[in-house]
Amino acid sequence: MQWDNWARHDYCMDTADLKGTSYKGCHVDLFSNMNKVCNANYDGAPIRKYDCQTARDVYFIAVDTKN
């Protein structure tokens, strides 16, 4: 995954903390950005794309459950 997606997610969460709002939008954006990475990097390689999407799902569940 591209690290700038994680940096944007962290910044979004920091901003949500300052505003006293939910992290849900941050998590949805992270999922969307990770999905774009999978599509852009593995569009012609279905098995690798599937692996990327599986990693995306695991990360999303961990982040969404934790926060």
Q: What do you see in this structure?
A:
- This protein is mostly helical and 67 residues long.
- It has one domain (3-66).
- The chain has 3 helices and no strands.
- Helix 1 runs antiparallel to helix 2 and helix 2 (24-42) packs antiparallel against helix 3.
Number of domains: 1
Strand content: under 5%
Cα-based radius of gyration, to the nearest Å: 13 Å
Overall 3D geometry? Answer: elongated
Model regions low in confidence, pLDDT < 50 over at least 5 residues: none
> Approximately how much helix is present in the residues?
over 70%
What is the typical, i.e. mean, pLDDT?
92
Structure class? mainly alpha
Summed up, the helix count is 3
What is the N-to-C order of secondary-structure elements (H for helix, E for strand)? HHH
For the secondary structure, the number of strands is 0
Q: Largest beta sheet, briefly?
A: none
In whole angstroms, how far apart are the ends?
20 Å
